[in-house]
Amino acid sequence: QVDLMESGGGSVQAGGSLRLSCTHTTYTTGKFCMAWFRQIPGKKREGVARIDSYDRIDYTDSVKGRFTVSRDNDKKTLYLQMNGLKQEDTAMYYCASRGGYWCSTLRWESGDYNAWGQGTQVTVSS
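The chain above was modelled as a monomer; its predicted structure follows.
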């Protein structure tokens, strides 16, 4: 079982920054993919960024150049540095993972990931 717990959400004005963290209980070796998703009420959960055990990284187009995903194996923590925040970034952000797969073999679909955190809210105001 993989336990994930997000933190770091909050309220910020447009143009500001936040760093989200996700602590997890495993996945420091072997093949795995860890990802950030976000969701607003009534909408489908959207993939934002992901990183695998070889540090290969993908971003959804809307956050490229603004968000940075990284991980610290020693701390068993996944990060999402969010700069230049926009109102449209307002959402509940979730950490997700899937063992045994590279990110490149997974879709940007929530169903492809089998472990989730409880989420952390990010609110960006004008």
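The longest strand covers residues 91-99.
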